[in-house]
């Protein structure tokens, strides 16, 4: 009785289809997470620190409004005025009544500038507002 060698003439090939699927999944994940956090990276803003600051779970579709130290309001990377901000927020709140807004006011910003933006948010009918803070460095 003659037995063939098990390893004789068997070449193993690398399956590329599953590897390409995984690479595309990772690519999609990183693009989506980058897109989600890019409006929070306004370099002109240093949010104030608070002892009770918490890292909350983020909600999908949050609106991030940045108020720079000179009072400039930035929404989705674009500088907006009072009327333009009100129009955009009204259209969003009409479509999504429970829309979440994160207000990122610079610690050097005039308090009145932040209150003005808060008034616009309230006038647009948005009630779900959070203020961005950081924990103080020790």
Short description:
By secondary structure, the chain is of the alpha/beta class. It has helices at residues 16-37, 82-95, 111-123; strands at residues 63-67, 73-75, 78-80, 100-105, 128-131. The protein has a domain at 38-131: Nucleotidyltransferase, domain 5 (2-Layer Sandwich), CATH 3.30.420.
- Provide the succession of SSEs: HEEEHEHE
Shape: elongated
Helix content: 25-40%
CATH class of the domain at 38-131: Alpha Beta
CATH fold name of the domain at 38-131, please? Nucleotidyltransferase, domain 5
Say what oligomer this is.
Answer: single chain
Q: Assign the structural class, choosing from mainly alpha, mainly beta, alpha/beta, alpha+beta, or little secondary structure.
A: alpha/beta
What is the CATH architecture term of the domain at 38-131? 2-Layer Sandwich
For the termini, the CA-CA separation is: 79 Å
Strand residues, percent: 15-25%
Largest sheet: number of strands, sense, barrel closure: 5 strands, mixed
Uncertain ranges: none
Helix count? 3
Q: Widest sheet: strand order?
A: 3-2-1-4-5
Q: Look at the structure and give the mean pLDDT.
A: 79
Radius of gyration: 25 Å
The counted number of beta strands is 5
Secondary structure elements and their pairing?
Layout: H1 16-37, E1 63-67, E2 73-75, E3 78-80, H2 82-95, E4 100-105, H3 111-123, E5 128-131
Parallel strand pairs: 1-4, 4-5
Antiparallel strand pairs: 1-2, 2-3
Helix pairs in contact: 2-3
């Amino acid at each position: 009785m003659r037995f063939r060698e098990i390893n004789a003439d068997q070449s193993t090939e690398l399956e590329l289809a599953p590897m390409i699927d995984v690479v595309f999944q990772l690519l999609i994940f990183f693009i989506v997470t980058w897109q989600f956090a890019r409006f929070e990276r306004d370099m002109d803003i240093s949010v104030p620190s608070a002892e009770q600051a918490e890292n909350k779970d983020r909600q999908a579709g949050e609106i991030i409004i940045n108020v720079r130290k000179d009072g400039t309001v930035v929404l989705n990377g674009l500088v907006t005025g009072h009327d333009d901000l009100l129009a955009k927020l009204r259209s969003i709140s009409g479509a999504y009544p429970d829309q979440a807004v994160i207000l990122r006011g610079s610690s050097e910003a005039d308090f009145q500038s932040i209150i003005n933006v808060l008034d616009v948010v309230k006038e647009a009918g948005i009630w779900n507002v959070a203020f961005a803070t950081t924990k103080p460095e020790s």
